[in-house]
TrEMBL record:
Annotated S-S bridges: 43-48
Domain FAD/NAD(P)-binding as annotated: residue spans: 7-326
Co-factor remark: Binds 1 FAD per subunit.
Organism: Vibrio gelatinilyticus
EC number: 1.8.1.4
Gene3D superfamilies in the cross-refs: 3.30.390.30, FAD/NAD(P)-binding domain, Fe,Mn superoxide dismutase (SOD) domain
Molecular-function GO term, any one: flavin adenine dinucleotide binding
UniProt protein name: Dihydrolipoyl dehydrogenase
Keyword DNA damage annotated: no
Length: 483
């Protein structure tokens, strides 16, 4: 058996692991990165990038379908060639992965160890039985994987996860999507627009990551107008029949209905990849899900020389968060024991559905829990249904709720569904990170006519409810028509 003594061992070679490796190397050359699977990151291989390629194809079809609303009538039927759609997705996906692999190739071979690591104790790792590593500091950056009920495995190869979608050579006839979260909504809507018969099922009524009841109700209605969505379905049975899956469920009319599909797509959440690390052989404190608890700003666990980053930390499973956490954890592992708090940016997340969903800062649920006893926050709102630029583009669906603190007037967060929500969210996130008040935000420039004028309308409503600004003026002239 090979034996190595290192200053820092990074478990995982994804976004967080690569960031941790580079940060640790700034302090010491004696760093190894352990990876059991393929390099390339979840985002590039099976996550954000290939899913956006599928969504882009679906949007091209949708634009053609909306053209008659502008008086433009395409001639003939729209032909969707599933093989060409998937060929482009895989080609571009491989290109993105290639960029990541170029960076991995630049890492010295002696710094990379292939295999799956398990803990022997707080300082010792065993990699696939071939290498024993004694490390002064360790960063856990093992990522996450899809989670679904074990009984679904009885469906065999008719059960798929989002990873499998991007290996298709052609589009299927029909898919049942379980889980109307980020992945389920994005893939479900895109497949629907590409001509695949889909139904999206969920439990408990949750739609996307939203916590604001008003915005969630709007989103639920908007999606139901386009495709079948039941966020709290009653499934009587689901079984494999030949090369199909037969699902018997109770529909919106309260009647039993049978849906026969080519595939069942499990988009019911993800779990941190820490359960196979023999983590019980360490003295780390774990949460109720078996994930090591860690300081939000240093990523340090209860064992002072062990850090956790990225999806494995179960804090915010997003690429930009994984990159930030990897840098913080790697920097602290490298400079240990000189631990420093890293920059944790304001929360921002987006669902690339149509209309898009986005959240910024503290959510409605977080604010309700934190400020429940003092009624210390209020909500400003705007509908995009009559917003000028949105109507011009026939993209006038959506609702934006912004939250402000009583007394200080500070902007606290937002939840929204609407056109270009990804861009609106960035503006609001920058304001949130700079701890701006609503009045300060309203002093910023707003061009006309732009969708961002809707943000101003919501902020004006919020400022009025905070008793800081004037009451809202209906058909405000400086906003132009339709605002």
């Amino acid at each position: 058996m090979n034996e190595r003594n290192v200053n820092v061992a990074i478990i995982g070679g994804g976004t967080a692991g690569l960031g941790a490796y580079r940060a640790a190397k700034a302090h010491t050359d004696n760093v190894v990165m352990i990876e059991g699977g393929p390099y390339g990151t979840t985002c590039a291989r099976v996550g954000c990038m290939p899913s956006k390629l599928l969504i882009a194809a679906a949007e091209s079809v949708h634009h053609i379908e909306k053209a008659p609303g502008f008086g433009v009538h395409p001639q003939g039927d729209v032909l969707i060639n599933g093989k060409e759609v998937m060929a482009r997705i895989k080609s571009e996906r491989d290109r993105f992965v290639g960029f990541v692999l170029e960076g991995v190739d630049e890492i010295p071979a002696e710094d990379k160890i292939s295999g799956y690591a398990k803990f022997i104790d707080n300082n010792t790792l065993l990699v696939d039985g071939h290498t024993k590593i004694t490390a002064e500091r360790i960063v856990i950056a093992t990522g996450s994987r899809p989670a679904y009920p074990a009984v679904w495995n009885e469906l065999g190869d008719r059960l798929i996860i989002n990873d499998d979608v991007f290996d298709w050579d052609d589009l299927p006839r029909s898919v049942a999507v379980f889980g109307p979260g980020v992945i389920g909504l994005e893939l479900g809507q895109a497949l629907h627009r590409l001509g695949v018969e889909i139904k999206v099922f969920g439990l408990g009524g949750q739609v996307g990551p939203l916590t604001d009841p008003e915005v969630m109700a709007y989103a639920n209605t908007a999606f139901q107008e386009e495709f079948y969505l039941d966020a709290d379905v009653k499934v009587d049975s689901m079984k494999r029949v030949g090369d199909n899956v037969e699902i018997v469920f109770v529909n919106h009319q309260g009647e039993q209905e049978t849906f026969v599909v080519d595939y069942v797509l499990a988009a019911t959440g993800r779990r941190a990849n820490v359960d196979k690390l023999d983590i019980d052989k360490t003295s780390m404190t774990l949460d109720e899900r078996g994930v090591p608890t860690a300081d939000h700003y240093t990523l340090q666990t209860s064992v002072e020389h062990i850090f956790v980053a990225g999806d494995a930390s179960n804090q915010m499973p997003l690429l930009h968060e994984a990159a930030d956490q990897g840098r913080i954890a790697g920097d602290n592992a490298g400079r240990f024991p000189d631990i420093r708090a890293g920059l944790r940016r304001s929360a921002i997340s987006a669902v690339f559905s149509d209309p898009q969903i986005a959240m910024v800062g503290e959510s409605f649920k977080q604010l309700s829990q934190r400020l429940t006893d003092c009624n210390c926050f209020v909500t400003g709102t705007v509908s995009f249904e009559s917003q000028g630029r949105s109507r011009v583009m026939l993209r006038n669906k959506g609702l934006l709720n912004v939250y402000g603190e009583q007394g200080t007037g500070r902007f606290l967060g937002a939840e929204m569904m609407g056109p270009n929500a990804e861009h609106l969210a960035h503006l609001l996130a920058w304001a949130h990170q700079n701890k701006m008040t609503v009045s300060e935000m309203l002093d910023m420039p707003f061009y006309h006519p732009v969708i961002e004028e809707g943000v101003r309308t919501a902020l004006r409503d919020l400022n009025a409810k905070l008793h800081i600004g004037p009451e809202m003026i209906k058909h405000c002239l400086d906003c132009g028509p339709g605002c």
